[in-house]
Design goal:
The protein is an alpha+beta fold. It is built from two helices and six strands; from the N terminus they run H-H-E-E-E-E-E-E. The chain has a five-stranded mixed β-barrel. Strand 2 (about 80-90) and strand 3 form a beta hairpin. The longest helix is centred in the N-terminal third of the chain and has 15 residues, at about 35-50.
Amino acid sequence: MSALPRSEKTGKAGKAERPSGRFRRMIDRLSSSQEDLESEELQEDAQASGCTRISDCDDRQIVKVTGTLRTVTLRPRAGVPALEAELFDGTAPLDVVWLGRRSIVGIEPGRRLIASGRIAMSHGRRMLFNPTYELRPLGKE
């Protein structure tokens, strides 16, 4: 037994030690919201596939990102059809826009994909116009 009360035990960095192991992970997962769990899974997927996190993308940077499409809408731009989708990787949203397209087979909410292109900033939002993309298999969702 330790002479210090449980709340005063600290680790190397001066932080309170947290129990680790399977039990701790199970408790963390049970106490997390579904949205937090999905964000964590998306971040792990982005890291495993070697993609850049959307939150780390800067204006005019060429990137390869991955995530899940949250919304897909048809929104004309200057009289030209444009298919817009919001890609989310667990860190930040990214608007993906295909100019001149009304629909693309496989581009639908809930679908995972990898997109590559040059980031543009518009009204404080990250955008990717006419990206090269790869749809992720449905079985992995």
